[in-house]
Amino acid sequence: xxxxxxxxxxxxxxxxxxxxxxxxxxxxxxxxxxxxxxxxxxxxxxxxxxxxxxxxxxxxxxxxxxxxxxxxxxxxxxxxxxxxxxxxxxxxxxxxxxxxxxxxxxxxxxxxxxxxxxxxxxxxxxxxxxxxxxxxxxxxxxxxxxxxxxxxxxxxxxxxxxxxxxxxxxxxxxxxxxxxxxxxxxxxxxxxxxxxxxxxxxxxxxxxxxxxxxxxxxxxxxxxxxxxxxxxxxxxxxxxxxxxxxxxxxxxxxxxxxxxxxxxxxxxxxxxxxxxxxxxx
Length: 281
What we know:
42% of the residues lie in helices and 24% in strands. It is an alpha+beta fold.
C-alpha cells in the first residue's frame, strides 16, 4: 500500500424490525474500507462487530490490552467494551459487520466467537471475503426482505470465520478425535487426557472450546447420532443397537434415548422409515 493512499470505503446500515430478532441473529451493518483508515478512538459499541483485515497491519486496544494486527487477521468486538484500533501509517484494507441477537450467545458457547482470543489469524481469506461479499449483497436497506437474507448471510460470515481461523471445531481437533475414536467404548476422561498429555481440567476446557459442551455431552451426541442411523438403516433389535453404541443395559439405553430425543427408539425407527422409506443398507 502507498503511504499517500487515501481511505476509500462504503457502508450499509440496517434497522431490523423487532420481529426479525426472533431469527436469533440480525445484521445491523456491513462495510469495507481501504487505505489510511481513520483511528477509531476509544469507544464502546451497542452491538457485536466482526472486523477482517485483509491487507496491512496496525493495532487494537481491547479490554485494556494491546494486540498487534497483521493481515490477514480477524477480530471480534463485543458490545459495551471500550476499544480502539488503527492501521499503521500505510493504512490497511478491512471488512466489517455489525450484528446482534440471542444466537451470539450460542456462537460464543461453541467457540465460534472467541472473546478470550479476540484477534486471530485467518488461513482462508478468500472464503471469508466471499462471505462478506454475500452479506453486502444481502444487506439492501430498501428491500423489505433484507432482514431475513442479511441474517442468513451473517450466520454464514460467522461460520466462514470459524472455519477460516481454526480447525479446532472439526474432527481434526486432537481432543475431539480422541473422543470420536472411543465414543462407543468405556474410556474415561482421565484416560483421554493422559493419552494426549493433558490435565483433566485442560482436556475438559479444550473440548468445551471445540464442541461447546463437556466431553460427556459430546460423546452422548455421537452415540445418539449413531443409534439413530442404526435404527433407520438396519433391523437390529433395540438392545443390539444400544450395545453397538456403548450401552449394555437395553433398558437404560431406551430410557436415555427417549429422554434426549423425545421419542422411544422403536417410535423413532417407525416414524423415520415412514418419512424416508426403507433406508436399509
